[in-house]
């Protein structure tokens, strides 16, 4: 099909994420390589643009990466899929061994899931099974943070923000959970993160009160470490992670770190949990796990938790997706992890410095509330909701693909982005905001 046919035939046929069948404007992809996308608009205009989104934070190594392509091609020549029930294979073993080696010491057991959202579902079930195995069947709920986002499936929805989240229209469908206030905001300060100590102390006091109140009916605590992604790209105080680790241990709760967006170096540390030097009981990873090549998530579980489940009535973790351990996904994930390890420590600080420079002119725009950068994440927060179609098109005209949401125009660029790419992405974002809302930034 020609791009015009693709766009016309898509309309009214396919749902796109959080979008009606009849809009907003779509762009047909005709090619992708490195950091570049080739797009065609509904009016026929063609764009050759830098992808500032890493296709929702997953394509760390760029499109058509030869090492990732080779990993998939090589595995196709062996076998593309086999059931994981009663069978195993080298790609699954390799990627699991690498995950255990890369995650904090003590996380020794891996469950391979279909996606990040499914990984969260499995992590929640791990916590519930753990409590039941210890003779605490009443502990079935969870404690989460306001502002959090953990996915679109049922259990994951329940631990997303219950008021401001995207799932607020399902109040009688999802389980009711307990929530802590957002931790105090933090900002980059030298090599670390700083926050208001008075606000932190107040939050800790409230967290201690809430956990004591709900501990006898919750199985665990789930958090996105340091950076809340779809909840607003908000950076918060690492001290909150330390306190939640302490409270989880004190009350026998399972601490779940949802590292699907924050893992593999994106925040400037290999895992977001590293900002607080915290080791969770369960860690979820996804998105960038395969370098954006295929869907795959993983749940990495501590030995103490796994051993309790192994000694329980069922002995098994009660989950088993059809495509669990898909060999193609495992093979490319193993290759992606090698690339991450080889380059993230050099690239992420470079990206952070470049984004600080490139986005700082946005501070001069009256519509801009705040500009913030952490690791390979850059955010322009507006004082009002983003006009998504207009800002998207304005950025395309400047050679950049962005996907704004709420009040945010943001970037999470591929790690292979050059300094020139990053300068162009930042300039395109700033100019797009200026074009739509008025003003100029030098």
From TrEMBL:
What NCBIfam families does UniProt report for this protein, alphabetically?
Answer: bioA
Query: CDD domains under this entry?
Result: OAT_like
This entry's Enzyme Commission designation comes to 2.6.1.62
Coiled-coil ranges from the UniProt annotation: none
Q: Output the InterPro entries linked to this UniProt entry.
A: Aminotrans_3, Aminotrans_3_PPA_site, BioA, PyrdxlP-dep_Trfase, PyrdxlP-dep_Trfase_major, PyrdxlP-dep_Trfase_small
Species name: Nostocoides vanveenii
Give the protein name, as stated in the record: Adenosylmethionine-8-amino-7-oxononanoate aminotransferase
Q: What does this protein do?
A: Catalyzes the transfer of the alpha-amino group from S-adenosyl-L-methionine (SAM) to 7-keto-8-aminopelargonic acid (KAPA) to form 7,8-diaminopelargonic acid (DAPA). It is the only aminotransferase known to utilize SAM as an amino donor.
Q: Which Pfam families does the record match to this protein?
A: Aminotran_3
Identify the main location.
cytoplasm
Q: Does the keyword Cytoplasm apply?
A: yes
